[in-house]
């Protein structure tokens, strides 16, 4: 059963690494497949106070959220041979991919929920530095690599507010 916690850690690291080096690295150049994230998704989040209306479109079309879904499906297919040798690791990574998509989608459909449950992701989009806070589901790899920057703070009545 060590494969389950290893899979959760690997899933979080992959989320952090991919977001930082692919979506904000390769994706900064307009016209690349990965530019949807930096140039469409970030623009929508800023323009609509973290809400991204693109999540109302078909999840498998070739727009920002569709490309996100296809990338997760592709990654899940790539690791599917692990099912033969490390089934619990493979199943955990599939869970991580699905959880990432559903959590990311919910956060941008319900910004208040994101402020409460994913403040690190809210900070990524709405804080002054979009080149930090790479994790979406849990901030574990941001903590590990020192890339967690706080923008939201707790107020006296225990709700989150921007500094």
UniProtKB/TrEMBL annotation:
Residues 6-147 form the Fatty acid hydroxylase domain. Pfam families: FA_hydroxylase (PF04116). The chain crosses the membrane at residues 69-97. InterPro entries: Fatty_acid_hydroxylase. One of its GO terms (molecular function) is oxidoreductase activity. The keyword Nucleotide-binding does not apply. Keywords: Membrane, Transmembrane, Transmembrane helix. GO terms for biological process: lipid biosynthetic process. This is Fatty acid hydroxylase domain-containing protein.
């Amino acid at each position: 059963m060590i494969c389950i916690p290893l899979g959760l850690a690997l899933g979080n690291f992959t989320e952090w690494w991919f977001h930082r080096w692919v979506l904000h690295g390769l994706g900064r150049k307009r016209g690349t497949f990965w530019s949807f994230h930096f140039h469409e998704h970030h623009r929508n989040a800023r323009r609509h106070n973290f809400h991204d209306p693109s999540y109302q479109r078909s999840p498998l079309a070739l727009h920002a959220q569709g490309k996100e879904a296809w990338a997760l499906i592709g990654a899940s297919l790539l690791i599917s041979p692990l099912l033969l040798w490390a089934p619990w690791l493979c199943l955990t990574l599939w869970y991580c991919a699905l959880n990432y998509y559903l959590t990311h989608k919910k956060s941008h459909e319900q910004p208040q929920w994101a402020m409460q449950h994913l403040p690190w992701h809210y900070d990524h989009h709405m804080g002054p530095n979009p080149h930090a806070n790479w994790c979406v589901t849990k901030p574990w790899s941001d903590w590990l690599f020192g890339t967690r920057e706080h923008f939201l703070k707790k107020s006296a009545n225990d709700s989150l507010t921007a500094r």
